[in-house]
Amino acid sequence: MCGIPRFPRLIRGLWPDRNPLRRRSDRAEAALVTRLLAAAITAGQWAYVAWVRADHAKQAWHQVRAVLLLGTWRLARRALERRGMAAWEANWLVTGPRWTSRR
Asked: Which of 14, 36, 53, 59 has the maximal Cβ count within 10 Å?
């Protein structure tokens, strides 16, 4: 107890050895602690990898402002001139929406 710190003493006590005086329960405890430690390390690594992937996915998405160019607006207005819209409206009134009833 005097010169050995606690952690190395704990490790030495859990280390598997061929001591004939060591109980089976002590050996089972050492094996269980080793497996639990390995599982905790593995779970920590998985959690870290998941966090890194989520962080990279967050950084990949960013907002961009959309700007409608004036030339595009004028082109769209020409394409949908009044006659074309009137013909489309007349056609729509004759056919009507097929998924709703007429009003």
From this structure: 14
HSE-up (13 A, CA, CB side) for residue 65: 2
**How many domains are there within the chain?**
1
pTM: 0.42
Give yes or no for a contact between 16 and 30, defined as CB atoms under 8 angstroms apart: yes
The whole-angstrom separation of Cα 89 and Cα 103 is 16
SS3 16: coil
Based on the number of CB atoms within 10 Å of its own CB, is 58 exposed (0-12), middle (13-18) or buried (19 or more)?
Answer: exposed
In Å, the largest CA–CA distance within the chain is 102
Expressed as residue numbers, the domain containing 72 is 1-103
3 vs 48: CA distance, rounded Å: 37
pLDDT at 1 over 60: no
User: Contact 14/30 with Cβ under 8 angstroms?
Assistant: yes
